[in-house]
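Lab notebook, bench 4. The sequencing result for the construct came back, and we need a structural model before the next group meeting so we can plan mutations. Quick request posted to the team channel:

Model the 3D structure of this chain.
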Amino acid sequence: MGLQFNPSELTMVKGASWARHNVRAASQASTPEFTGTQPRILTLKVLLDGDDHDSGTVDARVSRLCSWCGPTEDSVNASLPSAPWVRLRWGGFSSVSFMSFLRSVEVTYTLISAQGTPRRAVCVLTLEEIGLAKKRQNPTSGSPHSRHTHTLVAGDSLASVAHRQLGNPGAWREIAELNDIDDPSRVRTGSSVLLPARDTT
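Done. Here's the predicted structure in token form:
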């Protein structure tokens, strides 16, 4: 989804999880134990103004944003309900461009016509990073000979391709990551996708 205006500011939060256990003998404080990294949380404010010939009305664009908080039709049909994955792309701004899901949409309508049609809206979007599993370190995982491509036909979804080609419908996430697919529900018939090695999924 293209935006009419660049965000005026972005807020990103990244943290780590630590556990501190009570130690009776500690004179000051116990030594904390690192328990894992927390996902990046990105918050941005988006201005939607007037009608956009490519994206539709303000109301339609707000509805589309809100729909990203629910499962896609293809994922439901594949019995693997999942909301679409999203990624912010803004030039070479790489630290805020990561695979994520839309955690929340907060909409403030700032201009409404006399007929009750929203003409302008400010949307605060909160994206939460999806933790993608690291690829296994084995001799074949990085070899181009251990991977192959598949041409999508009508009715194909990433989940159905993963099930048919790899024997694991849950491997659709790896296919999406490997092909840099932001929205797995919008794959085009006739396009080709690179599949990971069967023994690495």
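The two ends are 30 Å apart (CA to CA).
Will bring this to the meeting.
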